[in-house]
Predict the 3D structure of the following.
Amino acid sequence: MFRYLCHYAHDHLDFRLQELTSAASLAGLGTLTLTKEYDHPDCTLSPFFVVDLLSEQHAVKLTARSILMKSVCELWGYGSTFGALVDSLKQFPAARMEEYCRPDSSFKITVETFSKKVSQSHKVQLIDRLQFLPLRGKLQLTNPDYAFCLFQDYGCNPNTAPSEPYRWFFGRLVADSQREVVDQYSVKKRHFIGNTSMDAQLTFLMANQAQVQKQQLVCDPFVGTGSILIACAHFGAHVVGTDIDSRIIRGTGKSSRAGENKTRGPDDNLRSSLRQYGLESKYMDILVADAAQSIWKRKPLFDAIITDPPYGIREGAWKIGSKKGKDHSVPEHLRDAHVPARRQYPLSEVLCDLLSFAAQCLVLHGRLVYWLPVYRAEYKADLVPSHPCLKLIANSEQVLSKDTSRRLLTMEKTAEPTPESVLCKPSDNKWYDSFRMKYFARQQLKSDKAARATSIDSVV
């Protein structure tokens, strides 16, 4: 058993442990145990996690899917002071250290700090203090055989960072993570986007939570511009989706890109986006359909269902039906050209239909991953929608504002539905359906306050 240091980016803090757990499960490593002896009581948000793994190959498997992790190192030493770090390094097995200190090898040492910037000259001084290490190889800054990292942890608040770090870590770099895909798939570089195109980092997080793999079939029932499915295709899955907005599916209407006063063209669609990244072979189809009236057979079809349901903020939530509540049959000779009326799709119904769809159409142990918008002051864990065939695996929060956030929920199908367990019932319909009203009421309050302030300034 070897000890490894996982170094994380300071981003989406509530998602890191969930992603690590999912990546470990996906790699067949079982349940990971974080080593608590390295924790600092004043640094609960630290980007450093220490785990015990059987081999270096296991560490590489963790980084192969991680988006939030920056790198993983074999931990050689740890201390609350530099002296303690030195003592710890001297206790590391010499035979293990010698493997990477051969005279015919090359190496480099980098210094990274958390919550405090230090000068380059200070970093050089720190490296000089490590001369007691038996590194007999050639110093080479570009493409060395081995890279070593010295980490300094100054706590979680840059404004109150101490003069000396709380914790010191030193280790051998084993592997970098996949964070480069965040820039590669950036929405800013994408040919086809819309008002609700999701940030690339979040889409890859969702794909990791769903444990998307090669040759799987993944569905997004609220596909929009397809950002989530692009991440799934990157991991080798075949993708399919539906959306009630035919303009998005067919590439018509006005472009959503800022500064572009033009209409979309035939290449403004998910297929062209997949082609942009060399992933067109993963495209199955995108269909115009109403999520409230599922077009899919009621049997296990999908390995994962991943989506960002509409909740009426940037885009409205709609389903087919008369706004007056009356449904009229359409004569057969008019059906081909008929555009059906739409009415609002309450969030409580969206969630019920989504969970019921997942219970019926996911394969056993397949995963449903979706976002739930919440008003933070009123949120309670028991308000998360449930279904007898789905088990909640993870629940992470992305804070949007002081008042609102959305929670990324991961559920696993544990049983096939019975006639009695097909439908889902949210615990509180009013709580779900009032989110949009409360959101815009709060926005109006802020707008009125700003207007009053402007009025007072003009009088003065």
Remarks:
- The radius of gyration is 26 Å.
